[in-house]
Amino acid sequence: MTQGVDITPPHTRIELEQQLISPEFVTDTIRVLTGHESIRSFDSTPIAAEVLEAILVSARSAPTSSNLQAYSIIVVEDEQRRARLAHLVGDQRYVADAPVTLIFCADISRLTYLAERQGHNYAANNLEMFLLASIDAALALQNALVAAESLGLGAVPIGAVRNRPSLIAEELGLPAGVFAVAGLTIGYPKPGVRRGVKPRLPSDAVVHREQYSAENIEKHVSDYDEVMIANGLYAGRQVASDPQIPDAEYGWAEHTARRTSKPETLVGPSAALRDHLKDEVESRGFSIN
Ligand SMILES: Cc1cc2nc3c(=O)[nH]c(=O)nc-3n(C[C@H](O)[C@H](O)[C@H](O)COP(=O)(O)O)c2cc1C
To answer: How far apart are the first and last CA of the chain?
Structure first.
């Protein structure tokens, strides 16, 4: 169901890329998926309990490795907690404005409890388990995002919950064995904030047939740069570098290269703390060896 969805043309990536896909294959689900754009401006309309439940049951319906269900979701609705959370994730204002933020956590605490309950020795704490639990959490997040968008809500993932893992854990009362992987801020978009779907790299750049091929990387990058420069997404948002270059030459390639050369610019003001992510993850009770 896509009732109430406020979208500006082009409505979906299929239309943006002028893909020739017959209408019978463009289901409501595919329209929602290909119409995704992150929303960062919300009005104060609350999310009805039933609507939130529909989002949560969708999240819990995601596939989960070996049915371990090694994740948990913290629902944050309290206004003061939302404000503190917004601050902890680098003062991302929309986290305070939106009525709900869901925090998706990798969670092995239930598994260690089970081992003990059943009289076994928990011996699965390694990198694979951290990855598995993080993937479970990410899949649940994506299901929640799609469900929310199908209901006319807007949302944005919040990876910045990993900026200050211990403070986030304290705020959310996370026990050992639970690590906040990413949040999802959800609300009704303010009118007019939808800009339309953000162009992606051409399909051939990321979709490889049978075997990986980087053969046309130069063409893919320069074609995409042209699109991104033309739509002005990075205008006035240059990552500091000497020398600065005109916005008309500053596209995804330069923006991305500057960001990966200064990883602190990927994660915002409190990013330096992510330098200690390995220690933070281990102090939450995971092992990543
Ligand atoms: C794991 C993950 C973490 C993200 N963290 C943030 C965040 O902390 N703040 C934010 O404004 N956007 C965040 N985003 C949103 C991305 O910036 C956005 O998805 C990307 O720019 C593509 O734009 P689109 O979602 O509108 O297509 C995150 C996205 C993902 C997948």
So the answer is: 44
Segments making up each domain of the chain, as ranges? 48-189+269-283, 203-267
* Residue of 101, 156, 161, 184 best suited for mutating to test ligand 1, as the one with most atoms within 8 Å of CB: 156
Question: Starting from the edge strand earliest in sequence, which strands make up the sheet with 71-76, in order?
Answer: 71-76, 100-107, 178-187, 154-158
Which amino acid residue places its CA nearest to atom 31 of ligand 1?
Answer: 157
Q: Check if the beta carbon of residue 180 is closer than 8 Å to that of residue 73.
A: no
pLDDT digits (tens, 9 = 90+) for 9-58: 568 999 999 999 999 999 999 999 999 999 999 998 999 999 999 999 99
User: Which residues sit with their C-beta closer than 6 Å to ligand 1?
Assistant: 36-38, 40, 92, 156-160, 182, 198
pTM for this entry: 0.95
* Tokens coding 183: 């949040």
- Euclidean distance between CA atoms 160 and 169, whole angstroms: 13
Query: Under 8 Å CB-to-CB from 148, ≥6 apart: which residues?
Result: 55, 154, 155, 184, 186
CA of 111 to the centre of ligand 1 (A): 30
160-187 pLDDT tens trace: 999 999 999 999 999 999 999 999 999 9
Task: Give the separation between CA 9 and CA 30, rounded to whole angstroms.
Answer: 16
- Give the domain 48-189+269-283 fold: NADH Oxidase (3.40.109)
CA-nearest residue, atom 27 of ligand 1: 37
